[in-house]
Amino acid sequence: MRIFLLIAAIIFASASASFAFSNSDMILVKGGKFLMGSPESENWRSTDETQHEVTLSDFYISRYEVTQSEYEALTGTNPSNFQEGGEFPVENISWLDAVRFCNLLSQRENLEPVYTINGNSVTWNTQSDGYRLPTEAEWEYACRAGTQTQFNTENSISANEANYYGHYPYEIEENYFSQGNLTTKPGIYRGETLRVGSFAPNKLGLYDMHGNVAEWCWDVYGEYDLHDTNNPTGKSSGTRRVNRGGAWNDFAKNMRSAYRAATPQENRSFNLGFRLARGALNSGLITTIAEQKDSGSSAKILIAYFSWSGNTQGIAEEIRKQTAADIFEIEPEPSYSSNYNTVLKEAQRDQRRRARPKIRNHVKNFAQYDVIMLGYPNWWASIPMPVASFLEEYDFSGKIIMPFCSHGGGRFGQTLTAIAKLVPNAKITQGLSVHYSGGANLTRDIARWLEANKIQVR
What we know:
The chain is of the alpha/beta class.
C-alpha cells in the first residue's frame, strides 16, 4: 500500500501579542490511507491492535510535546513531577487538564474552542477551528510517518534515539540472559524527562513521538470498530482514554507505533503529557463521556496483593495497619520459582502467553467491597499474570481500584494500562509506586497516598 504524506510547516499567528506560544508551530499532515494497528507477526503486540485500513483527512499536529513553560504561561501552574521548567515537557497532566488547556489556548488566540466541558463530561464540536487533542488514528498516522515497522525509526529503537527505559530495548525479555540476538543492545536509563526535541525527528519533522512522555489522545479506549474507518474518533462512551507513544520509564515494547495505553481521564501521572492538534474533520460528530463517581471515605475496603519477594507484602501490611481493611493474598497455584533468574523467565513466559494462572484461594463475598487496593510488583513493565487472573475472576463494575506497586526503577511501567483494559467498568484512582520495600519513608508515603484518596486511617 502506498501512503501519500505531504509535509508543510505552518505557524498559526497568535491574536494576542502578549502570549507567545513557541511550540504552537504545527505540521500540516496530508491525509490518506494507512494500516492502523499491528500485524499478527509483530512481537509483543497486544490483541487490541487489530490491523485495519483507515482513511484520514488533512490535519495539523504540533512538532513538540507541550512544555512546562508553555503550560505555566497559560494556566499559571506547573503540575509536573520533574520541575525543570522551560522546554521540558509538562507531565502529571490528566486528560481533562489537557482539553481545558486546548480551550484556553483557543480562546487566547481568538479561535472557537473545540470542547464543551461540563464537569467530567466533554463534548467535541468537530466544526470548531480551535486547538484539540489528536485522535488515536491521527496520532498513529503522524507517528508512523509512512513506516509500517514497530517504530518509526524502522529499526529496534535505541536509547540514543528516544528517552525510555534504555536497559530494556525491544525483545530484551526473551533475550535477557543471552543478548547476542538483540538488534539493539541495552542502553542508558535516564530516569526522568528530557527537553523536547532532544532526539532526531521522524520523517514528518515531529519530535518525541516515541518516549519522553506518553501523549493523551481524544479517543475513549475500546476495541477498534473495523467498520468505522473514515476519520475514526473512537467509542462514544467509556471509562478510559487512550494515550500513545510511551514515556521515559517505559520498556521499548510499549513504545511501538501500534501500542495502545489506556488511563482514566481524570488521572494524572509523572509520565503523561500531550501535544496539540488542529483538525480538518468534517463529520460534525459530537462525542460524550459520562461523569464518574468519586470515592468516599466510608467505603468498604479490600487490600488484595500478589508478592514474590516480600516487598509488595510489606507494603500491603503497612496499608492494613493504617486502614484496618480486609486483606487477601493472590497466590498462584503452582507457585513461581524461588530462584530470581528462573522467575524472570517464568514471568516473561506467562506475559507472552497471556497466561491466567489458577489462584489458590478466593475472596468471600467480593460484592461487599467498594474499594480494592490492588498491589503487585512491576514485572517486565506490566502486571504479573496472577493479578490478571484475579481481575478477571470478579465483577469490578462500579468498584474503585487503588493500585500500588513495588518496582526497581520503572515505577508503574504499563501496569495501570493493563489494569484499565482488564476492568473497563471500574474506576482507577491515583496509584502509589514504591521503590523496592519503600525504606524509612514507607509509612509516611502510604499515609499521604491514603489522604490524597480520601481514605480514613485509624
